[in-house]
Amino acid sequence: MRPHEHHRNDNLSRRRRLRRPMLAAFTGLGLVATLLTGCSREAPAEQAVDEFLRGWQEGKLDQVRFVDGQGQQITGPKVVEEIAFLRGDLPAPAVRREGEASVGGDAATAKLTVDWTLPGGTHWAYPTTVRLKRDTEDRWRIIWEPRIAHEQLTEGDQLTVRRVSATRGAILDGAGAPIVTTRPIVVVGVQPSEVTDVPALVKQLEAAFKAIRPAISPPIELGDLPDRMKQAKPDAFVEVVSLRKEAYQQIKPRIYDLPGTKFREEQRELAPTREFARALLGSVDPVQKDDLDANPGVYVESDLVGHGGLQGQYEKQLRGTPANTVVISRRNADGKIEPTDTELFRTEPTPGAPLRTTIDVKTQNAADAALAPDPHRTAMVAIRISDGSVLATANGPGGGAENLALTAQVPPGSTFKMVSTLGLLDGGAVSLDAPVSCPKTFTVDGRSFKNSNDFELGNVPFRTDFAKSCNTAFAALAPKLGDTGLADAGRSLGLEAKWELGVEAFTGKVSTGGSPAERAAAAFGQGTTLVSPIAMAAATAAVAKGQWQQPKLVLDPAPAAPAPAGPPLKTTSVEPLRTMMREVVTVGSATALKTVPGGPVQGKTGTAEYDDNPAHTHAWFVGWQGDVAFAVFVENGGGSGETAVPIAERFLRNLAAR
Prior knowledge:
Layout: H1 3-27, H2 32-38, H3 42-58, E1 66-67, E2 73-74, H4 76-86, E3 94-104, E4 107-117, E5 123-134, E6 140-143, E7 158-164, E8 171-172, E9 181-190, H5 198-210, H6 225-231, E10 238-244, H7 245-255, E11 261-270, H8 278-281, E12 283-286, H9 289-294, E13 304-307, H10 309-313, H11 315-319, E14 323-331, E15 337-346, E16 355-357, H12 361-371, E17 378-384, E18 390-396, H13 404-407, H14 417-426, E19 435-438, E20 441-444, E21 447-450, E22 458-461, H15 462-468, H16 471-477, H17 485-492, H18 516-522, H19 533-545, E23 554-556, H20 571-586, E24 601-609, E25 617-625, E26 628-634, H21 644-657
Helix pairs in contact: 12-21, 14-17, 14-20, 15-20, 16-18
């Protein structure tokens, strides 16, 4: 025994002899245990453990004393470095002490619980032990060894998480069949070290991509490819574009043998075509930096993530819960860290839940094909009249970057004469054959209104004013709608209602009140009235059915509080309105639809000014055939007969042919 130890033990013996009378005095009060605990030598050991655990989680161990397994001192920063290595890409775990330390002479142990949060939020928790040693200064030192983090870890080991993605839930059509399924793609890339003439390669690739039919919209832009190649390693795979396999096969002979081109076959979750309800469905793509930043701990770099549309909105439901496997990695002979077969933890993936919609593949394909030839931004919605199911939501060109079909907020133009006429008929202000003048111009409070191409009809039956779409006749009739007649008629057709479709949709805003000039403009769909294609398709379906019902789009999970059905429309109003909408096709402004297959078509054309320049107009057509009501919108499309009606004709012919 060293001299100073003998002195310390002698002092301790003397203090114990002095305490004996005091302890005896307190025995009857039951306080002996309390005093003994207060003098326990376990408390400093527990304090040392707690300081270690706090520093472990904070990544700062400067004030904690360590020795290694051989009893050699090791610094706190060195331990921080080793902990950072062994946890790999995992965030710091939550670590807590369980109970009191067990002390035996100059050695102690403490039980711990280590709780890791794995990607996706899965917890991996287990018990472990930390050992301590008392030094010559009566202070406790933590014995640092990798087994503190996990009992199977040794020096140089690292934890590695292997991710197994869950089967993604399918987006189902109205028949319950998957719309989006796993389909083959080809990722086209280039290897910089094998390209000698970058501008020539870019030119050849651009020409090949433009040859794909149907044309990819928006076009594939390669302006940044030269810079990305410069920044990449010489042997890197610099991705150019991902193509559906059928599109790749079209141009394979043109690009396969180009210097530096490389190709990687993969599987992606895709709709039947690139355009198919693209803005509604969204896409499933490799995880992006924004996803990782916005969802820390949820995704890893190998994940696929839903972006936009239903895929993005219902991402949590569709993606399911991926599996996590934690294995030990070790350095190989080349010094690289590689996973071993030693598995420490695993979970099983939980498949994503499907999302059922009302989309009808046949109708959606017909709508997409109808929009395809038009270069404008376009939108179309088709609804089954009998039950309100949304059969198609199409956007163009190329499927559309924005879901105008559901969210556009634009003036309806003369399609709104359907609503105005319902209000006039409800109020008894007009009838089919009552004469209503259609002059070339009509002035209200100094504001002059005119007809398309300055036509005039004279004093004609109201049905003719409607069929030929006479603005001046409706401007003159506006006072007969009163303060709320137009808004009341619109609301009876579902406009401005609170819908729950399972996706965002604009239900319209009807102009009400205002100056006499504003009321005159609102009577034929100008002024401050705003609608969306789905709102007008639903209103048209209401006229065809005789009662408005909220459209249905997402069926499962079902919207919590869909809007109740509206009151039945007056037969004395809706039957004349249907007659007039048929005459729009037979003798009016949409005669191009008179001969389409599939039965008679009813409808209404519309041209809507959207700013102070009369040359700037949107084009519309709303109508129905059989059990399908639909609305066509063409942004800046000019006259409806030039753009919207031809789209409607292509849609109906496509539908009949499929």
